[in-house]
């Protein structure tokens, strides 16, 4: 019965031609590379408007390679928002660099651009070698704006700031396939952008990701690095430290089928987000405010509410799956020694009060109404 059946948080929706395309990929006997990988990459490039889309093994590896291509080296500092999935900060650390966490804006939950600028103006100096941190003299090489939950950062402003301070921009667009700002797709206005196709994302390849760029040389270099930097057609000659980060053909086949359904997925995500805003109107909850000019994919519905953890537990007893928002990076043991730039510790407050709401593209209206009614019972 629908009224008591479990309502999952965010399920994949594989009701298109996934099985057919994956079987075709297996039958072709082309597994590592192949025609579906080419097709999926072309679909991504066409949809986002990026000149190049390169399929990789996941969103984290996409970030690691993109940061390498952005010139991040051991000892560098990289500016990241304090509220994001840990992969954003991990990818920096993998390269021997350190993230500097910048607090988020209380309304948009995205990197606070005032704090970002303030840090660069008051705590860095520039010379011909780039931008350096006043106290540690470590180079500040890049900034990674994250388009959290589908909301797109003010990329015009961030690109301006980055250009002024000679730092590179790598956009973490893991959550924002289908999100545009002033008609430009997220992940396509920095030097490089990265995406995730993890199973909870708006489209999935089970595990997978992509690197976007408009720069042909960077795209070529990315392809080289993700295939172990092999520089000879037959001999095992490797001219750099490469990785085995390719997206494989059967998973790209799943991606190709998912891309065919993306416009419908975005439509449903928007309906779900609009429903929650409507049904909780006037109640003591707060939703993420979109940055002006953003057409969000509303990848994941979320809200702030007092006693969020108690509510999550209560909803679980009614078979409704919800989750907290991410723990701020500065609170995680691996990053506790890193710099955290803040005025009012907004990320901690948003994390403490944050909860993610059920928002599968396959959620029915009846299920949505059950979520709305049940939550209202607790918070009215
Ligand atoms: C903001 C953000 N960055 C990076 C990632 C990493 O992607 P993946 O899980 O595909 O490695 C995720 C994925 O969940 C994410 O939400």
TrEMBL record:
Supply the Pfam families for this chain: DegT_DnrJ_EryC1
Q: Which residues are responsible for catalysis?
A: 201 (proton acceptor)
Q: Which NCBIfam families match?
A: NHT_00031
Q: Which SUPFAM superfamilies match?
A: PLP-dependent transferases
Give the InterPro entries listed for this entry.
DegT/StrS_aminotransferase, LegC-like, PyrdxlP-dep_Trfase, PyrdxlP-dep_Trfase_major, PyrdxlP-dep_Trfase_small
Can the keyword rRNA-binding be found in this entry's annotation? no
Family in the record: Belongs to the DegT/DnrJ/EryC1 family.
What is the protein's species of origin? Answer: Dyadobacter fermentans (strain ATCC 700827 / DSM 18053 / CIP 107007 / KCTC 52180 / NS114)
- Keywords for this entry? Aminotransferase, Pyridoxal phosphate, Transferase
Q: What is this protein called?
A: DegT/DnrJ/EryC1/StrS aminotransferase
